[in-house]
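Researcher: Excuse me, tokens okay?
***
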Amino acid sequence: MEVFAEYLSRIDNPQHRARVEEVLSWIIKRFPDLVPKIAWNQPMFTDHGTFIIGFSTARQHLAVAPERAGINHFSDEIVQAGYNHSKELVRIPWDGPVDLALLEKIIEFNILDKTGCSNFWRK
């Protein structure tokens, strides 16, 4: 979590900070082989040098960026979880629960789908 300490310290709202820290900590524990890093001023995780998932904060939600392929693959489940999404972001409202089971599926999908990928982003 040290890599994310400065980022977390800049989140003014204590509840938002706690939520982001909870999610990032859970990923570190659940996926110890992923590399946590800050890039483009946002926390993210990579695997063999390729992007797996990233996060950012907004006034109304925690934004999750699993790339378009992850969103397309899980679009129905994202909506069923009560989240809305764009082509590139899933929005988790601050006042609702985080569906960690869905987040786990999305991360696992990206890890498997990008096994042979040598680019940071999908092409």
In short: The mean pLDDT is 95.
